[in-house]
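Example 461.
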Amino acid sequence: MAAQSMDQLVSLCKRRGFVFLGSEIYGGLQGTYDYGPLGVELKNNLRQAWWRSNVYERDDVEGLDASILGHQLIYKYSGHANTFSDLMVDCRQCKSRWRADHVVGGKCERCGSKDLTEPRPFNMMFKTQIGPVVTDDESSLSYLRPETAQGIFVNFKNVCDSLSPQLPFGIAQVGKAFRNEITPRNFIFRVREFEQMEIEFFVEPGKDGFWFDYWVNERVSWWVKQGLSKENLKCFEQPKNELAHYSKATVDILYKFPHGFEELEGVANRTDFDLGSHSKAQKELNIQAKVVENKDSLAKLAVLKLQTNEWIVPFVIEPSAGLDRGILAILNEAYHEETLENGSKRIVLKFKPHLAPIKVAVIPLARNNEELMSKAKQLRKDIQKLGIGRIVFEATGNIGKSYRRNDEVGTPICITVDFDTLTEGSDLKDTVTIRDRDTMKQIRMPIAKLADYLREYFASP
Ligand code: ATP
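Predicted structure in complex with adenosine-5'-triphosphate:
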C-alpha cells in the first residue's frame, strides 16, 4: 500500500514534523520547504545510504563537496547560461505564468482561458552578485549552481592530480542545487531549492554504452533496496529530440508519486561534452590573456592511460538523483493505513530500518515511578552509544498512545521497561519488552542481548 493522495502525506509531514512550508509565518515562500526534526533525520539517513553504497562500498568512486556559488564562466562554457531554460507562456486574462509543457489542453490552469502568449524561453538559473561593489557590466555576476555536476567537472583535474585514478572511475557529490522553476508544485517534488545526489562516472569512449546500461540497472536496484517497490518504478528513454544539450542518451527512472509517474532520477550519457567544453575554455581564455605561450602545457581535462601512454578525454555517465524527490517517494511508499482487530485504525510508516528517523523509542511503563524512569533513561543512553541512529526516551504514561505515535513516525522498535525489569528474584529481572512496528508482536529480551540484536537489525541492507 502507499498513500492515497498527496494531501495525506502533506498533512502527516506537517503534523509529525517531517516537512514544513518555507518561510511559513510570513505566508510561505513558494518553491521552498524546510525539514523538521524527523524530516532532517530521514534526509540524513537517505543521503548516508546513498553515500555508503556509491562511495564506501565501491573501489572506483571518490567523494567531493564543491561550492554552490560558481564563476560565471563555468556556466557559460557548460552551456547553461544559454540553454538552461524552460519554455513559458503567460495567460493574457489573469496574468499568471506557466511552464508551457504543463499547460494541459492549451488552457490556463487558474482561469481556464485559452488566450495565452507564444511560448518563450526562461532561464532557470538564480543569479547573484559577488562582492560589495555593484558593477554595470556583468563582471560581478555569479550563479547558484543549477546542478552539482559542474563542481565535479571543474575539479576533475584537481582530483586526477591528487589521486591519479585510472578509468573507469567516478566522483560523487551530494548538495544543494537551485532552479527558478516557473511553476513549483506537488509539495517537495518540484521546488526551487533542492538537493541532488550525483555521480560523474568517467569511462573510455566506446565503453560508454556498457556503463550507461550498468548504471541504469544499478540505480533501479538501489531504490528497491531503499524500499520502493518494483511495480512503482519504471524506466523511460528520452526521445532524441528532447535530450539536454549535453546528452547522447538519457533514461529517466520514474516513480509512481501520488500525482502520477514522474522522474525520480535521470541517468545521462553526457559524452565528453563538459570536459571538452571546459578544456576548450582553458585554451581560449589563456590564449586571449596570453598567460601561456606553449599551448601544450594548458590544463588538460584528460586522463593518461598508463598501458598506452595516451591522453584520453573520458566520456561520462551521470546518475543524478533528487534527494527531496527520494524523500517523497520513500514517504509515499512507507505510508500505510491499517484497520486493527479491535476495529481501530492506525497509520504506520513502514520505513526500511536504516532509513527510519527514530530507530528505537525507550518507554517506561509508568512515569510516576522514579526507579523505572531512571532505568529507562539509562537504557536510552546506552543504546544511543551503539551508533545506530536516533534513540528517544518517551514517558507519556500511556503505552498504547506511545505505540501509535511511534507507528505514525515509523519507529521500527519500541522497548518497554516495566516493573518486572526491576524486580529482584523475578525471572524477568533485567529483561525488557521489544515491540515490532510492522507485526506489532512483542517479545521479551534480556538487556544484555539488546546490543547485538539492534546492531544486526539496523545493519545496512
Ligand atoms: P524535470 O524534468 O522533472 O524538471 P529534470 O530532467 O530537469 O527534471 P535533471 O536535470 O535530470 O531533472 O535533474 C536530476 C534530478 O534532480 C531529477 O531527477 C530530480 O530528482 C532532481 N530535480 C530536478 N529538478 C528538481 C526540482 N525542481 N525540485 C526537486 N528535485 C529536482
